[in-house]
Amino acid sequence: MSAASAMDELGASRRSSPSGPSARNCPEFVGVELIMALWWPRRADLSIIPNAVLFIAAAISVAVLFSASLPFTLVPRLSELAAMAGSLAFASAAVLVFFRSRIAYGIAIAAGLLFLPWVVETEVALRPWNPWTFLNYSGPARDVTGTQLTFMVRMIVSVALITIAACCGLFALIRWK
Amino acid sequence: MSNWAGIAVGLLIVAVWFVRSAWPYQTAEIRDSSAAKFRILHVQKHGLQFDETLVTAARDTRAWTSRTRSHLFQYQFAHAIRQSIIPREDLTAFLRSANAWRLQIPAAHSLWSWNAEGWYVVLDDQRLLTFTTESRSAPPPPVTKIFNEIEALPSDPVGSFFLRDICFGFCYDPIAALGFTDLRGRDKLLGSKRYAH
């Protein structure tokens, strides 16, 4: 919700208030009401809260994923930079969704697309294996180390969260239109 | 409503990725290239439980017996391996009889009946023979004979290991239980180029 529309809503509520001007003219009350109108989503927009949670979860998952992988790659590849930018984009979408929902959903879709090249590149690099086959690891340890296993689990979680977050963004944008 | 649709589509995409990646069963390991002279796998299925015994024989008469008990809906299961030495004449007699087999063999598949039994034989890591109660076929007597002989031989423990299946037992099939847990070996055995890289 924008500040302008919040002010409009505030004005409308004050005009329609049956309690009279005595309490509502109090400056402190107006301030609290303005803050509530700015920050508290309207009843019809409660659906943005799960989206915001998904966006922030996706951002955190990518940040955690790359915090583990960065020691292996001193010079990040272009796809890694794009994925990290995607993480920042998801974080910004999680905040922006409360003010400019349509833009936030667009950013979330773009963030998902930014993450995609890194996923494809990693899948191709792992061939003939893939992240799921690392979870079929049989012991005792020979070729698969705990670090690799952790990285694959984080990658699967990140891909799942980002896919769901981007799909939610896409469907929310379709609903908006 | 759009949230649920987004979550559903997202989960569907992840599910497709999972199925395409996890099947057929393979492990992220580099397999040694030592070929076995023959492998015999005996599987007994009781409900959701599988009791598997794998006998593997090398050209130099060493043999390994591996026992695995797994359940469907189970991620990790243990298997123990023991090593023994087969009398050379027994190995030679079995290989001579195996070379003479001319059998119409159904394709290898997992057992799906509630109670079932299967025998899977691989000769020279190339020729796969399947005998299951589901296909109403019984193994030739030399198979069960040498299998029982190797099981009865004095053996030394090699160690206990564990296997994991991310599909909770649904992807781990007889081909994987026979030791073909890499796509290249699996393709070579099944004569398929589907998973070749």
Keywords:
heterodimer; A: 177 residues; mainly alpha; 7 helices; B: 197 residues; alpha+beta; 7 strands; elongated
Written account of the structure:
The complex is a heterodimer of chains A (177) and B (197). With 177 residues, chain A is mainly alpha-helical. Chain A is built from seven helices and no strands. Chain A has helices spanning 3-16, 21-24, 27-39, 48-69, 78-96, 101-126, 146-176. Chain B is built from five helices and seven strands. Chain B is an alpha+beta fold. Chain B is elongated, with a radius of gyration of 19 Å. Chain B has one domain.
The gist of it:
The complex is a heterodimer of chains A (177) and B (197). Chain A is an all-alpha fold and 177 residues long.
Secondary-structure content class of chain B = alpha+beta
Major β-sheet of chain B, in short? Answer: 7 strands, antiparallel
Report the total helices of chain A. 7
**Run of helices and strands of chain A:** HHHHHHH
- Unreliable stretches of chain A, pLDDT < 50, 5 or more residues? 10-21
Helical fraction of chain A equals: over 70%
| Whole-angstrom Rg of chain A | 22 Å
Query: Mean pLDDT score of chain B, rounded?
Result: 84
Into which percentage range does the β-strand content of chain A fall? under 5%
Distance linking N and C termini of chain B? 43 Å
Structure classification of chain A: mainly alpha
Overall 3D form of chain B: elongated
Please provide the count of β strands of chain A.
0
| Domain tally of chain B | 1
Low-confidence stretches of chain B: 193-197
* C-alpha termini separation of chain A: 17 Å
Instruction: Report the C-alpha radius of gyration of chain B, rounded.
Output: 19 Å
| Topology of chain B as a string of helices (H) and strands (E) | HEEEEHEEHEHH
Number of helices of chain B: 5
Largest interface comes to:
A-B, 34 and 35 residues
Residue fraction in strands of chain B: 25-35%
